[in-house]
TrEMBL record:
<keyword id="KW-0472">Membrane</keyword>
<dbReference type="GO" id="GO:0016887">
    <property type="term" value="F:ATP hydrolysis activity"/>
</dbReference>
<dbReference type="InterPro" id="IPR003593">
    <property type="entry name" value="AAA+_ATPase"/>
</dbReference>
<feature type="domain" description="ABC transporter">
    <location>
        <begin position="351"/>
        <end position="601"/>
    </location>
</feature>
<feature type="domain" description="ABC transmembrane type-1">
    <location>
        <begin position="34"/>
        <end position="317"/>
    </location>
</feature>
<keyword id="KW-0067">ATP-binding</keyword>
<dbReference type="InterPro" id="IPR011527">
    <property type="entry name" value="ABC1_TM_dom"/>
</dbReference>
<feature type="transmembrane region" description="Helical">
    <location>
        <begin position="34"/>
        <end position="55"/>
    </location>
</feature>
<feature type="transmembrane region" description="Helical">
    <location>
        <begin position="256"/>
        <end position="279"/>
    </location>
</feature>
<feature type="transmembrane region" description="Helical">
    <location>
        <begin position="67"/>
        <end position="88"/>
    </location>
</feature>
<dbReference type="InterPro" id="IPR017871">
    <property type="entry name" value="ABC_transporter-like_CS"/>
</dbReference>
<dbReference type="InterPro" id="IPR036640">
    <property type="entry name" value="ABC1_TM_sf"/>
</dbReference>
<protein>
    <submittedName>
        <fullName>ABC transporter ATP-binding protein/permease</fullName>
    </submittedName>
</protein>
<dbReference type="Pfam" id="PF00005">
    <property type="entry name" value="ABC_tran"/>
</dbReference>
<feature type="transmembrane region" description="Helical">
    <location>
        <begin position="291"/>
        <end position="315"/>
    </location>
</feature>
<dbReference type="InterPro" id="IPR003439">
    <property type="entry name" value="ABC_transporter-like_ATP-bd"/>
</dbReference>
<dbReference type="GO" id="GO:0005524">
    <property type="term" value="F:ATP binding"/>
</dbReference>
């Protein structure tokens, strides 16, 4: 497995950014941790040196005096510090990690919210990066800082012990250093392989998570059971897990061999040193204290060197992981913003699509191929067409989730590109075909349509009444405060059947409609298949209410049930990416085109149903 590389300039930029995040998130904690790391680095060297001095004094035959007592106290205090310091560092580090996680997460979501369109979010490569950034974003700064501080500690311990060894016996000092060099080289190689493995495993992990979610999650539960897919997905999940484990095992074996051999080499050198120091002490060339100092210094040097290499490896890994986060944070805006956005005026004339061409990316086919359409202010336009004709795509362009590749969409003559998208959307209301059921209370589910209405129960109820769901919500165990989910419960609430409820598909659609109706006063209301989940009576009821609600206002209605759109001021048929027909219901019927054919087909279906014996 070849190791992934990060260009040096990029690595330095990431290191600065990651350390900057740590400093901004927890300046005091980071400074305290640095101080503690320095103390932790010098403590073992001090303990070893003081032990040698005490032993030398004791074996030197001089009577005990105050200086020996002082050495003893110094040794006790330093040894105690050696015990306490790791715990203190552990606490400070956890505080720092929590602060960094909060800051990293806030910045990540701020960056995602800066993407006002959908292009980047729908790009699979960006999604992949985003997932990785969500999972590992905090590891960059925390791992980098933790290991940089660890490296400071290791460097201090290493230089302290090496200094002592070189003073004591330069030969042994150099021997220990030489014995550590192969370890250093091998560790660096292993580190690179481990980083490569972590990145390689990300893909396995995501697929493993996907299959696991299918098995345990509610959304797929019905199909998994009905189609008997449990074993199939389970096997796929285990394949991914096996794949991961095989990669890990290969590296673990390599590490085992390398570390075993290098451990033996290190032990050999250390053993030779012990023989030398003991012989020298027996011959009077070294003291008993020197022997103890040597015995402490050899593992100290080897440990510090190993630690240092491990820390550099972890820093390398942290920088690579930070790359995902950095790229998400630095993502360019997905929709060009005008240097100075024009204010969005109330709609007076209408919205005009002029020769609009659109495809989701150059890799995708054209969806819209020169659409010319005018949505007059104050009128209801219905958009119909076969599955995949591009109706929802046109809606997304009106909301400026994307820009047309060619042509323009004009709001009272001004290109939508000249507006700030957030301000434009303030003037729109919409109920999307794939509306979102939120695991929140009924009131919150509606209020999300206009957060200003959060504390205005009358407005929420009025919207619910218009969507025909007020009665059902009032009858819930806790009325509008009832949670429309059973996911977030713990404690006594878990067993309380009143705590949360599950709505039917049609009821959810009405809640989504109520959310949309909170914005019924906006300049344009878009309803994409608002009644697909409603029963026939409810659908009729809804469209009657809609007509009253939207009288004199601009709306765009999409529906496959042509009976529901027959009263629209204009009906537009989208086919092959263009406007194929346009007119009032009677005109289109008389024209005998695609609309007339579809309408007749649907009407005949109803008539035949009615005529069929029950
Ligand atoms: N995010 C996307 N990325 C790529 N292609 C897409 C995306 N969304 C839709 N499409 C494609 O664009 C075409 C038009 O889809 P769209 O959803 O606009 O059709 P529609 O008329 O609303 O269909 P339906 O009546 O089934 O809701 C389809 O071929 C679809 O596969």
């Amino acid at each position: 497995m070849t190791g992934p590389r990060l260009a040096p300039r990029r690595a330095v930029r990431h290191a600065r950014a990651a350390l900057g995040i740590t400093w901004r998130a927890a300046p005091t904690g980071t400074a305290a941790d640095l101080l503690l790391a320095i103390l932790a680095g010098v403590t073992p060297v001090l303990v070893a040196a003081l032990t040698k001095l005490v032993l030398d004094r004791l074996s030197g035959g001089r009577p005990a005096d105050a200086s020996l007592a002082l050495l003893g106290v110094g040794l006790a205090v330093t040894a105690a510090a050696g015990v306490v310091l790791p715990h203190l560092r552990g606490y400070v580090e956890k505080e720092r990690i929590r602060a960094v996680s909060r800051l990293v997460r806030r910045r990540l979501y701020d960056a995602v919210l800066r993407l006002v369109g959908l292009v980047r979010l729908e790009d699979p490569e960006f999604q992949d990066r985003l997932q990785a950034a969500q999972q590992t974003g905090h590891l960059g700064p925390t791992q980098l800082t933790g290991n940089a501080l660890g490296a400071v500690q290791s460097l201090l311990a290493l230089s302290g012990f090496l200094g002592v060894l070189l003073v004591l016996s330069p030969t042994i000092g150099l021997l220990v250093l030489a014995a550590a060099l192969p370890t250093l080289w091998m560790q660096l190689r292993l580190n690179r392989a481990r980083v490569a493995m972590v990145l390689h495993l990300e893909h396995f992990q995501r697929r493993d998570f996907f299959f696991a979610q299918l098995l345990v999650g509610v959304p797929a539960a019905k199909e998994v059971r009905l189609f008997g897919l449990g074993r199939f997905f389970g096997d796929r999940m285990l394949d991914e897990l096996h794949g991961m484990h095989r990669v890990e095992q290969r590296l673990d074996r390599r590490e085992l061999w390398a570390q075993g051999l290098l451990g033996l080499l290190g032990a050999g050198v250390a053993g030779a040193g012990v023989v030398y120091t003991v012989t020298a002490a027996a011959g009077g060339r070294l003291t008993a204290g020197d022997v103890v100092l040597y015995l402490a210094a050899v593992p100290g040097v080897q440990g510090a060197l190993g630690g240092l290499v491990g820390q550099f490896g972890a820093i390398h890994q942290a920088l690579l992981l930070f790359d995902h986060y950095d790229q998400v944070i630095r993502a360019e805006p997905d929709l060009p913003a005008p240097p100075t956005a024009r204010p969005v005026p109330p709609l007076r004339d209408g919205i005009e699509l002029r020769d609009v061409w659109f495809r989701y990316s150059p890799r995708h086919p054209w969806v819209l191929r020169g659409v010319d359409l005018f949505l007059p202010a104050g009128g209801t336009t219905a958009l119909v067409g076969l599955n995949g004709a591009g109706k929802s795509t046109l809606v997304k362009l009106l909301c400026r989730f994307y820009d047309p590749e060619r042509g323009t969409i004009r709001w009272d003559g001004t290109d939508l590109r000249e507006f700030d998208p957030a301000e434009l959307r303030q003037r729109l209301g919409a109920v999307f075909q794939d509306f979102m059921p939120y695991d929140l209370s009924a009131a919150e589910n509606i209020a999300l349509g206009d957060l200003d209405a959060r504390d205005d129960p009358d407005r929420l109820r009025a919207a619910a009444r218009q969507a025909g769901i007020d009665e059902a919500l009032t009858a819930l165990p806790r009325g509008y405060d009832t949670l429309l989910t059973r996911i977030f419960f713990d404690g006594p609430d878990r067993d309380d059947p009143q705590a949360g409820v599950v709505l039917s598909g049609g009821q959810w659609q009405r809640v989504a409609l109520a959310r949309g109706f909170l914005r019924a006063d906006r300049d344009l209301l878009i309803l994409d298949e608002p009644s697909s989940g409603l029963d026939a009576e409810a659908e009729h009821d809804l469209h009657t209410r809609l007509r009253e609600l939207r009288r004199g206002r601009t709306s765009l209605l999409i529906s496959h049930r042509l009976n529901a759109v027959r009263d629209a001021d204009t009906i537009v048929v989208l086919a092959d990416g263009r406007i194929a027909e346009c007119g009032r219901h009677d005109e289109l019927l008389a024209a005998g085109g695609g609309y007339a054919r579809l309408f007749t087909l649907q009407a005949r279906g109803y008539r035949e149903d009615a005529a069929a014996p029950v």
